[in-house]
Amino acid sequence: MRKNEINDLFKSQSLTLKSDAMKYVESILNTLAAVDDGEEFVQKILQTMTEKALQTAIVTKEIIQEAVSEIERKQEIELSNEKMKKKIMKMNSTVTTPNEEQEEDAELPIEVEEEEEEEDDDDDDDDGARLNRERLRNELADEAIVICDAFKTPRYQYDETRKAFVHVTSEPTIDAMADSKINVYRERFHVLRQRMARNEMFTPPAFARFKASNNGSDGDKSYQELTPLRSLVGNCYGTKYVMGCLSQIEDGIFHLEDSTGSVRIDLTSASTSSGLFCENCVVVAEGEVRKSDGIFEVRALAHPPVESRKTTLEATNATDFMGASQGGKHVALRPRDLTEKEKIEKESVDASFVVISDCHLDDSKCLRRLQKIFEDYDASATPPGLFVFMGDFTRVPFGPMKYDFASYTKSFDQLADLLDDYPSIREECRFVFIPGPGDPGNTSAYPRPGLSAALRGHKITACLQKVEFASNPAKIRWHSQDLVFFRDDLQARARRACLLPPVDDLGTEEDDQNLNFDMSEVEIERRRAMREKPLFHHLAMTLVQQSHLAPLPLTQMPIYWERDQAMWLYPAPNTIFLGDRSETQCLAKNVCGVTTMVNPGCFADDGSFVIYKPSSRDVILSAID
Q: What is this structure's pTM?
């Protein structure tokens, strides 16, 4: 690696290398022949230093030496463990009894003779079976689909001093301390605050010149400065822009809170942008402090603006928030790899994913609909690469009146019996099952773990070669794309939690024509869809701008405090599949210019489902009688 590349990696963690430390790192990379990837070794050094909790941002040669020694010690431990395992396996393979040796010697000639006699007859069949097994192994090894479990999501904490995300090594627990609840809101705020700091609207240019007006406001200022809430005390002059978390301490009395303090706000005359403004949402407010009572009177309220996925990856040094690079051959999604991965995606024109929500496996009507889908794809030359089934998987939700686990397991056995008639789908397609709110589980808190073997039975796993019982939510990476699957009646929850009614700012198609808006066909279609399903589009904009699947109070939507990052939408995903029974099948394209959100509909009610074409990123709304 070149010196500037090494320096950039340390700068991404807000660290500065001294000259002697830089020379030492270069010498290490030049002398270690076992290191194939210099960047990977430098990342190991940074990770080791992070675990040591540095007291300064200046990195000396001694600090690097300690980190390298720690890495070498860990490698020696791993090497000794591997040698011990190989030694034990070798001992187990060589230990045989005399009777076993005689039996092996006696059987050896017979086996050779049988192979010679049957070589001509069975050679073609054996080769075909062997090639089939090798093909399946290669497909599994080269699988582009990476399924990320919510309970294996890595945890990161934003360091305000270093302006970087630091990996949290401690294991998350369910019965966390009270400080973890505070950290939930603190980390949500820091994620959006550091994203706002990169937005052009709130970032001062390198050479800024503006003229202040007489009333104390900024006259020709080309950007808006965010004011910390503690700076509003006694500051009653001019318009201010603030950012904070909406809270309602008393009924009808609202406050904004940030890491510096809080201020009471007045929302009676506030105009809002698109989206749902719920308690605990992080918002940007424009207004002025009243001289009479010191209350911040809000004139305009909006969600924090989003940024592109590439910008986020570059700003966070390709930090793996999903956990897609944990183990195996998969690596973190780096900005420089996006172009190459997108080319591979476009070449996979036949790839498709089928997403079905509310598939009641104990309903004969649903099974007949599934049979029709399987028949169509079994006859196709290119079956889908992925089937995603989201719960509920029974007609009656589990609860105080429903606890028949035997019938629940039997419903998955029925699906296995149905799939037995379609061998190509069983062998070539990958299946993912995501539990719904009505499926059996420990609690109603999110994230929810996948269905255990005791609930789903063993017949379905024996039937399907590639099956995954994922958590809810589940995140899937396909080359450069991040897909999020979440099953919850979220739209009704969010609407009930709204502090302000959602705004209707789209007008009609005649208004667009009268105003002579110069819009593309995509924008015209998007605005037409928003007029048909306005609440769903408001919800989509809220989730994307809040970078969270559940920006609601914990009392209304409980979340495990130390698992909250599994609900993050950061960086913004390419597509969100939200199984929501409170809304019919609908689609929101190009939400905030970065994300598509789709509701597959209720398969049990009207047979609706969606087909996703990842190469073109198109969503096809489908239904079957």
A: 0.78
